[in-house]
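User: I'm curious whether this sequence folds into something compact or stays loose and floppy. Could you predict its structure so I can see for myself?
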Amino acid sequence: MPSNLTKRDIVLEIYEKTNFPQKEVKETVQMTLDVIAKAIGEGRNVELRNFGVFQIQQRKARVGRNPNKPETDVVIPSRAVIKFKAGKELKALLEDLDMDNLD
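Assistant: Here's the prediction. I'll summarize afterward.
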């Protein structure tokens, strides 16, 4: 199973391809993530062409059950969630993915 890609992995790959100072690459990656997080925190969708869109959606309030006390209803309040919709090029990469090697 392939390991997860971390922020550190991203920084190292960009560093190896560009030879920019690693500290600058790290700061740039972090600033990019900060800008994305700030926009989402303001309720804005983030669209990255050819990659995908982070969309903010609202989950409606609903009634759930506590498995330890099934006779008691629990109100789950509405909340904002983030949905990611892959772009065309990213979807094309997924078509070539061998799912048997992911388990």
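Summary: The mean pLDDT is 91. The first helix runs from residue 7 to 18.
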